[in-house]
Amino acid sequence: MDETRARFLAAIARQLPAERIAEAHLFAAIRQGGVESGVAVIALEQEQVAEELPQALAEGDVATEPAESQAADDVVDAVDVEETLGAADAEELTADADDDSPYASEIDVEPVAVAAPAPPRRYVVCTARYRHTLKGPDRGKWEVTVTEEADAPLLTIDAVVRGVQRRSGDLDEIVRLSGDELRAALPVPATP
After folding, report:
1. Looking at per-residue confidence, does 91 or 57 come out higher?
2. Which of 42, 56, 72, 132 is deepest in the core (most CB within 10 A)?
3. For the chain, percent helix, then strand, then coil, each to nearest 5?
């Protein structure tokens, strides 16, 4: 990793809590005139993950199917059948359901825990930009801004980063760092 990227990561870590950074995507730097600039997309872990969960899931509640036996003709509500088919067809259908059929026997339903699938974990999406003046009267000037943009799952962040790279026509590979890799790349402060 070059010196400018290490400096950029250190500036990001000063503005964002490094322990919450889940991953960072670093775009290639651009030099125009006497100025170099760069962009990074950072995914931060949410501060309070437990507050995002629905109350029912947090307490461990789950929906269950009925445990008592049900006759097959009780499963379909007669009012719904009449509205859908019409009164004459509904009478014929309910009369057929009373016949002795091996498929119309009572059904024992065991209780089954049904939990909604957990939504994908969302992360705070931040963009970081630096501007480093290389030539001219402001030579050496270094500016870094970090802005919170949105929240999204990691898969969405990856897809957006790849889309930006494709649309920009940038042939350079985007550097993706996990949170641990980013923290390991940070300069170690000197101890006095």
Report:
1. 91
2. 42
3. 35, 25, 35
* Cβ partners under 8 Å of residue 46, min gap 6: 52, 122, 123, 124, 151
Strand partners, 38: 130
Single pTM value for the model? 0.61
133 and 97, same domain (yes or no)? no
Q: Which three-class secondary structure state does DSSP give residue 110?
A: coil
Radius of gyration of the chain from its Cα atoms, rounded to whole angstroms:
30
Question: Distance (Å, rounded) from C-alpha 109 to C-alpha 68?
Answer: 7
Kindly report, residue by residue over 17-58, the tens digit of the pLDDT. Answer: 989 999 999 998 899 989 999 999 999 998 864 444 454 444
Q: If you write DSSP's letter for every residue of 60-74 in order, what string do you get?
A: T--EE---S-B-HHH
Q: What is the amino acid identity at position 74?
A: D
What is the distance between the alpha carbons of residues 164 and 144, in angstroms, rounded to a whole number?
A: 21
- Residue range(s) defining the domain that contains residue 129: 3-51+118-185
